[in-house]
Amino acid sequence: MTSPEPLSPGRYRAALILGLVLALACLVIGVVVVVLNLNPLFGWFFLAVGAIVTVLSIVQLYRSNRS
After folding, report:
1. Which end of the chain, C or N, has fewer beta carbons within 10 A?
2. Cα separation of 27 and 19, whole Å?
């Protein structure tokens, strides 16, 4: 078996930006669910996951732009 080729810098940044957009969507969904009191546990879960992935995406984007 051969290993897959690494992503080019442009594709890597595109994947990170897509992850950032999806993480921000998770944050928005979490806020809406918590504010409307639809299912607080679900909302807090989405807020936590969205916040963690957003921070990680921003850090990785920052590192990829420095190199």
Report:
1. N
2. 12
pTM over 0.90: no
Q: Which helix (H) or strand (E) holds 16?
A: helix 9-35
Write the pLDDT tens digit of every residue in 17-67.
899 999 999 999 999 999 999 988 999 999 999 999 999 988 988 888 776
Q: How far apart are CA 55 and CA 35, in angstroms?
A: 22
Q: Is residue 18 packed enough to be buried (19+ CB in 10 Å), middle (13-18) or exposed (0-12)?
A: exposed
